[in-house]
Every structure is written in C-alpha cells, then in structure tokens.
Write a structure and sequence with these properties.
alpha/beta; 45% helix; homodimer
C-alpha cells in the first residue's frame, strides 16, 4: 500500500478546485486502505458537501468506490433489472416489484440494505418470515434468479466496501445531505452489479431525505448522469413521499400488505407504483407499449402469477411459502393490537411522514443506530391518505405493540403527525416525473 | 462528563447558521473531553473554514479554548506586556524585545512555542545556550519576572489544551488557513495569561502564513476584536515578511545576532522592529511620547542595559551568561562554515523567504513534524536585504552545516530563493500599519 498525504487533495477541494479522477481514486483508496485516518476524510467530505462535486468528479468518486470491492456478474437468460428506492415510509414497492417483474419475464437480483432511522428496510421486512435467509452467495443468487426469476438478498461486505466506510463516516459527521455524495453512494451499489436496466425511485416529501421535488429531481439527474457516464441504462421516477406510500409501517405487517397487493386483493398507491415500475421495466427491456405493459402488470397481480413468484422466492430462500396464503399463520404477531379510532372529523390534509416512521421506530420496528435489533412484530397500520374524508369514530388503523403503554404512546405520536382540516384537498401526485436514461 | 452528539452543531455551521456561545462551548468541551472523535471535529473545522465565523462566534470559540485549561496570573509591580509574532523567517524580535522592555521598566513573561515548518521558534533558539531551561513553573516565572523583568518559557501543557488538540487536528486535515481559527488559536494563548498589554506582530509576505498584507490586516483586526471582546488592551502591527527580518536563520547563530543587536553593535530591520515594539509598549503603558519612547529604547540598546537584562535572564534560567560577552565561547558551532560568495551582480529584488526557511530546515535547523529534534548549531547567515546592491565575488553570508554535502545543497537552495535584477528597487516598508486597541 502506498501511504498518501491526503492534505493536498483536501486543500484543492477546500479551495474550490475540481479534482482529477486520479486524485479521487487516490483519496478513496487511501482512506479505505487505512493510509490516513477518519479526520482528514471527514474534512474532505465537508469540503465536497460545501463546495460541490461536478459530474466528472462524482463519476470518478463513484468509480473509485465500485473499484474498492468485488463486482457481481450474473449470467441470466432473461433481461436483468435492478430497482432502488432512496427510502421512505411504508415504501414496500421492492417486495412487490421483484416477484411481479419475474412474473412478467424479467429477472430481478435485488441486493438490499437494512432500515435506518425513519425508513424501513426491505431485508428487515423479508426476515420477519421465519426461516428466510438473505445471506445468499453469488452462486445461490444466480441460481435463484435463473430458476425463480427473482431474489432479494443482503449486499455482501465485499461489495463497495468504500461506500460502507464513507457512509458511516458521513453519518457521524453531519455530511450526509450532499446530492453528489448521496448519488455516488446509491449508484456505486447499482453499478457494481451488472444489469440491463436500473430503475430508481427518488422519493420527495416529508417522509423522504429529499424534502422538495426540486431536490429529488436534482438527485435523480445526478444518478442518471452517473449511469450514462458508466454506459448503463437507467430510468428514474421522482415520486411522492409526503405521506406513507402503503398502509403498513413495520415489518411483519408489511409482508401481510405485500401479500394482499401481490394477490390482487388490495388497490391504492402502493399497488399503482409497483405496477408503474414493472411496466417501465417491461417497456424498456421487452419493447412493450406503455398501455400493454401496464395491462400485463395489472393482470399478473390479479391472476395470482406474481404472488406465485413470491411464494417460490420465499421457498428458495428458506422461508415458509404458506405466508402467501395465510400470512398470520406464519408471521410473528404483536401481543397488543390497539385499534386506532378517530376522535376528529374532516379531511386528511398533511402527514408528517418522517415522524410517523419514527413513531414506528419507537415501537421497536426500526433502528436508530446501525446494528440495533428490531422487533418484526410491531408497527403501525394507518389507512387514510391525503384528501381522504375522516369521520369521528371511524377505525383508521391499528397499532401493533409489545405493551399497552407503548401502544398508547404510539397512538399519541400518530395523531401529532396527522393534520385534519375542514376542507377537502387534492391528493398529491403519485409520480412527479420520469427521467431517463440510455447511455 | 456529558456525552454530546456533535452533529446538530456541525449541521448548523454547515448550513451557514451562527452558533451560540453555548454551542461553541459544548463543541470545544465535547471534543477536548473525548465526548466524540476527531472526525466530527474535522468536519466542523472545515465547515467553520468555508462558512466563516462571525466576531461573536470567534470570541465564544476563543473563550471555550481558554476555559479548557489553566490561566496564569502573575503578581508584578511593573506593567506586564506580552508580545507575539505570527511567525516568520529570521524573526528574532521576541528575544530582543523581552530584555529591552525589561530594561525600560516593563515586565515581560513570554510563553513561547517551538518552531514548525519554515518558521523558527524562540524556545529552540534560546535552548541553543547550554544549560538553559525553559520549563519554568508559574512560581519560577513570577519570581524571575519580578527580579529580572523578563522570562521566556515554554507554554505548559495545562495552558489552553484545546488549542493544542485543535491545532494538531487542523494540521492533519488541511483546515489551517482560516482567519477566525488562526486568531482564536493565537489569542487563546495570549488571553490565558493576564497582562496589561498584548503586542501582536502579524507578518505578511513570502515568509509568512499570510502572503498578502490585506490578509494580515484582517487577521490583526480579528485578533484585536477578540482582545476588545475580552476587555484587554492590545496593539497589532502588520509587518513585512517578504524577506528574512534579520540575517540569521538557525538557532545558535540567532543568539549570536541577538547579542549583537542587544549590545548596540548591529543596526538594521531586526533592531528597528524590536525598538518599535518596545517603544509602543512604553508609550501605551508608561504614557511616554513616541519620540521619547523610541529614544529610550535606542539608548537601552546602545548603553548595554538591555544586554545586561539578557544576561540576567539567561543566568536565572540556568544558562551561561558569558554568551552575552563572547557568544562562540559558549554556543555550539557547526563543523562546516562555508562562505556564501555571490557569482552574480545587480540588486536584490525578491526573496522566496519560506523556501529559505525550508533550506535551513533541510540543514537540520528546524522541524517538519512536531517533536522532531533539531540541530542548534546549523543554519544560514544571509546579509543582503531587498534593494541592496550585490557585486560578483562579494561575501553575502555563510552556511553553517554538519557536512560539506549539506552545505553545498543549502547553497544551491539559497540561490534559488534569491532574485537579483539589473535595476535598484525600493525596499519594502518595515511596518505596513499599526492597529489597536483599548477595550
């Protein structure tokens, strides 16, 4: 290992210069290789955040991050699609999208992360199914993708280790909210896995990291530039996260909701967004028209073929596939299920979605610090969406908790997140815009 | 110790907000108390550097740094004056100023640092006198200031420990060049010692940290604002460091030069600046007129009374006072003394003073890293100043070295730092401006 002095590179970024690809690589390699400590890297990240990174620098950073670890190449006879969300509340699209896309003849090898803060994690949700493994080897992943069409597994430690190190450092040093750094983090993990199409769901609103749709568009464009610079196809949707997307904010209850949507027994925004993503994949990879693609995706939910793929995926990963027929015969259930009954009347005007996510975390459904355990059984089920009428005495959801005290506390928190007004309001759009994306 | 999460404070500075005094104190205390690691502090320092600190924030930072350690209160029957230089090449003013001010009836308790990089250190120079101690206790310091009128001692580890920690971190993270951070570092050490007057020498030019006089004025003003905010009297001169101030760049040779100036046997810019500072102190503390103060300072050099104070100070600190009569009977002398003979003719137009300082470091006279040993005997003696005529064959100085090879290498380096042109040029002013400074 060559030991480098990081200070000239920090000083260049501090003084507003653009860094060369070699400088970016020297910095990333030097940090991940232990050539210098956390502190110079933290100063560098703050300089990047405040002085910005141009497209070439962001691409060089992303490339250096990808090159810090292994890359994954799966042989697949069907087109491989990857889908990623920047994170939100009740955002269960991935778990619906993967079997749905598989039912439509695409392959999905989804490497996922765990929940952190107010956002849930796909792996955590999936692991609430007893026996289910997510620590698949690359060989297991490849085999399952070929036989079932989809797999959702944990990202291995050898994939983009620089991202793990840099993300932990950013979290500790208040250097998270930088669009180039977020884009490099997101895209390094997508670009390390060879696929035919990357679909990005960039969330905007009170439950997302990007609070405004303008910020979300900028992040989406930066991510797409990275894909183009890499020579990869990608499409990005900027979608609404001003309220929970689905109704379930937890883990086991999210699986129950996933089963209902996959079985065609539940409509709404969660189903609609999953259909939209699957249809975009089909259009892009199989040349279907938009209307035809949407119709095929809707049909795969309604005829049970998507749910069947989910059952096969769960079985392949060691879980009990009966969860797709009778979820609560398999899933852990909280001892306290407290109905949420409205004490007010009017229309739902706004939701503090991040705070709602944190109320679920307080119940035990999520984690504040990486590595904390979670309780798969607890969570919040909340039905109304913005614009919906609410009547006094109406059952609007449930709190699943370990104790009465926790349930009562969650109920009080939930009400603080909901604004009920006298006048009806327009629901926010589901998708603000699509951006994309051939190299 | 209260463990604090530093991230809200970092985020506030990152987002351009002004921090309260409580936030600054929580940050400094948290860092020096080990409540969080180097990395968050490094991100914070970069945010301070790039987004700036206003006067109130800089004062709060300085106060928190002073409060991190002990403060010094010396009982003195004469007015106490402190003098500080921001560092330069051949900047031996302090060693002349201290005994000169003592000879004029003032008291000087100077707590000094060691040389780093291209700048020499007063302690290193003084310790080239065999037997001389600089690790004086507060009691020894007080006694010596009362009996001799001056003492130059090492700053103890218990004085402003936050500055030591923050400076080391800034050095490692390319966060040194921030005027508020530099001012807080300089002034925390001055304000931790109770004195009646602080005299600051803020250097500007090729041998200084501030390359332009405009930057130096800004630093001087920031330092003076801190003094005013603290309720202390201070005056600052912005002085020229576009060339070495004196002729000696080393340690023992600087002591020999000090003895010559203190004994009235050497004129020039070094003597003139020491007289200027001593006269300003006398004007400010004893109400003397400017002309009278200058005349008294000149007289104290010419009548031997300043040199006598130096002898008493050296003796009080355990050194051999004969150094003031016959320096080379006492001081370590390098085995190689190579005359510097000019091979060109014209006028000295410019000096790369920082590189000249580094040529002396290469001989062993200084240190690149804190804690490195130095060789007190070696150094560079260079006579011409900007504007002086130079003739081919003229003896312009000497290199004092451990080996012929080192001397030859230094000679080549020295010539690279000197620009000799065909036309005479105006010498730069010695003092650009005085600024100051009653609370």
């Amino acid at each position: 290992m060559t030991v480098i002095d990081p200070r000239p590179i920090i000083a260049a970024k501090r003084d507003g210069q653009s860094l060369s690809a070699d400088e970016m690589k020297a910095f990333v390699d030097g940090y991940t290789g232990g050539s210098f400590a956390d502190a110079p890297a933290a100063a560098f990240l703050m300089a990047c955040l405040l002085n910005g990174l141009d497209d070439a620098e962001t691409l060089a950073l992303t490339r250096a991050m990808v090159e810090s670890g292994d890359t994954v190449h799966l042989a697949s006879t069907r087109p491989l699609v990857d889908k990623h969300s920047t994170g939100g509340v009740a955002d269960g699209v991935t778990l619906i999208f993967a079997p749905l896309a598989a039912a439509l003849g695409l392959s999905v090898a989804k490497l996922s992360g765990r929940g952190l803060g107010h956002t849930g994690g796909t792996l955590d949700k999936l692991e609430s199914i007893p026996g289910l493994r997510t620590d698949l080897s690359v060989e297991e992943l490849a085999r399952q993708v070929e036989t079932v069409g989809c797999a959702v597994a944990a990202q291995s430690d050898s994939l983009v280790p620089a991202d793990r190190a840099l993300y932990a450092l950013r979290d500790a040093t208040a250097t998270v909210p930088s669009i180039p750094l977020i884009a490099a983090s997101v895209m390094s993990k997508k670009l390390a896995v060879a696929t035919d199409l990357i679909l990005l769901d960039v969330k905007a609103g009170s439950g997302a990291f990007m609070k405004s749709s303008a910020q979300a568009v900028e992040l989406a464009q930066t991510c797409l530039s990275l894909a183009v610079g890499w020579g990869r196809s990608a499409l990005a949707a900027v979608t609404d996260m001003s309220q929970p997307l689905g109704d379930a904010i937890g883990n086991a209850i999210d699986i129950a909701e996933t089963v209902e949507v996959l079985g065609g027994r539940r409509g709404g925004r969660l189903r609609d967004l999953a259909v939209t993503f699957a249809a975009r994949g089909l259009e892009s990879l199989n040349g279907a028209s938009h209307d035809e693609a949407v119709a095929r995706a809707e049909a795969a939910l309604d005829d049970g073929s998507a749910l069947e793929r989910f059952a096969l995926m769960i079985q392949a990963q060691g879980g009990d596939p009966r969860v797709t027929q009778d979820p609560w015969a398999v899933l852990p259930r909280a001892p306290i299920v407290r109905p949420l009954v409205s004490d007010r009347a009017g229309f739902l005007v706004a939701v503090a979605a991040e705070d709602l996510g944190l109320a679920a975390v307080a119940l035990g459904a999520g984690r504040i610090r990486k590595g904390d355990p979670i309780d798969p059984a607890v969570g919040i089920w909340l039905r109304p969406k913005i614009g919906d009428p609410i009547e006094a005495g109406m059952l609007i959801g449930e709190v699943h908790a370990r104790s009465d005290a926790a349930a009562l506390e969650a109920e009080a928190s939930i009400w603080r997140t909901l604004t009920v007004g006298p006048e009806p309001v327009e629901p926010p759009p589901l998708v603000y815009t699509w951006l994309g994306g051939q190299p």
